[in-house]
Specification:
It holds the Pfam family Epimerase. It comes from Microbacterium aoyamense. This is TIGR01777 family oxidoreductase. By secondary structure, the chain is an alpha/beta fold. It is 36% helix and 14% strand. Strands 2-1-3-4-5-10 form a six-stranded parallel sheet, with helices on both faces. Strands 6-9 form a two-stranded parallel sheet. A two-stranded parallel sheet has the order 7-12. Strand 3, helix 3 and strand 4 form a beta-alpha-beta unit. Helix 3 packs parallel to helix 4. The longest helix is centred in the N-terminal third of the chain and has 24 residues. It starts with a strand and ends in an 18-residue tail after the last helix. The C terminus is likely disordered.
């Protein structure tokens, strides 16, 4: 069938384009550059069987005022443009899958967030996610099934994995421990009704904050699965059924990158390190505990449910640690 993918130039988009093209589909990409730009999006959407939207500025950056505004604008406005294209299409797509994020849920240490029991959080990242989904589900599209892909942190040759691997290689491969740091307002709420009190949250997790993740291959497989399952719509969590915690994550990552040691990284160490990497400590300090209830109930099978195997296939420049603890080197 004809599948239109908006925002296909990013990490997930590149994998998805190749996989769906290999499946035999006609894949049309929409972006700022290329044969189909946003100006021509409406014509591309008309007659497509599937529409997938991954567009949005990467959150792997510092949350300056300029970046905050662009993170929100790039998600909401591209989703709105595609919704208008679907509304105007003579033959609208049967299914529209729109990227979202599992960061929409609260910092959770007591129980996991599922689609049926999850609770939304507060602050910048949550406000972006809620505005994104609100724009996506606005209006009536009777001929198009809509699915919001609430993705956990994706392991693969992408920015999140690269950042974690660099921390481990720099010797900061121990647990990430929240603590005191001068207050800032980078995580304050955004949009028409910003949430939170504007302060950066602190949590005494002692490195036990939960880490929900999913391998890029399972993201692609889940999208294939959701295209075929016309009984699934609304929000769907894309996350491994086996979340871990930060201490276990970093211990596993040290084995994979063969780091001889990993210092505990307290917030006062993380803040300058993340500044140098041009990203945010929220990546490792927020407790993300998400389970894929709807995928599991629908019978989806994960290719990479194991954390160590997933990291071994995802981390670049990996090497074995010797005969006592070999790490399988597999294609990424």
């Amino acid at each position: 069938m004809k599948i239109v993918i908006a925002g296909a130039s990013g990490f997930i988009g590149r994998h998805l384009v190749h996989a769906l093209a290999d499946d035999g589909h006609e894949v049309v990409t929409v972006g700022r550059d290329g044969p189909v730009t946003w100006t021509d999006a409406a014509a591309a959407v008309d007659g497509a069987g599937v529409l997938i939207n991954l567009a949005g500025k990467s959150v792997n950056c510092r949350y300056t005022d300029e970046n905050r505004d662009e993170i929100l604008r790039s998600r909401v406005e591209t989703t709105r443009a595609l919704r208008h294209a679907v509304e105007a299409a003579a033959v609208p797509p049967t299914v529209w899958l729109n990227a979202s994020t599992a960061t929409i849920y609260r910092h959770a240490m007591d129980r996991p967030n599922t689609e049926s029991t999850g609770e939304f959080g507060e602050g910048f990242s949550v406000d972006v996610a809620r505005a994104w989904e609100r724009e996506f589900f606005t209006g009536d599209l009777p001929g198009t099934r809509r699915v919001a892909l609430r993705m956990a942190i994706v392991l693969g040759d992408g920015p999140a994995t690269a950042t974690l691997a660099r921390l481990a290689k720099f010797g900061l491969g121990g647990p990430h421990i929240d603590g005191w740091w001068p207050q800032h307002r980078r995580y304050r709420g955004i949009g028409d009704k910003p949430t939170g009190d504007g302060r950066a949250p602190r949590h005494r997790t002692r490195g036990r904050q939960r880490f929900s993740w999913i391998h890029i291959d399972d993201v692609v497989d889940a999208i294939r699965f959701l295209i075929e399952r016309d009984d699934l719509d609304g929000a769907v969590n894309l996350a491994s059924p086996h979340p871990t915690d930060d201490r276990t994550l970093m211990r596993t990552l040290r084995r994979v990158v063969a780091a001889p040691f990993g210092l505990p990284a307290y917030r006062w160490m993380l803040e300058p390190a993340m500044w140098a990497l041009r990203t945010e400590p929220e990546l490792v300090l927020k407790s993300r505990w998400v389970l894929p209830e709807r995928l599991i109930d629908a019978g989806f099978r994960f290719r990479h449910p194991d954390l160590e195997e997933s990291l071994a296939t995802a981390v670049p420049n990996r090497r074995t640690m010797g005969s006592r603890d070999p790490v399988a080197v597999q294609p990424g």
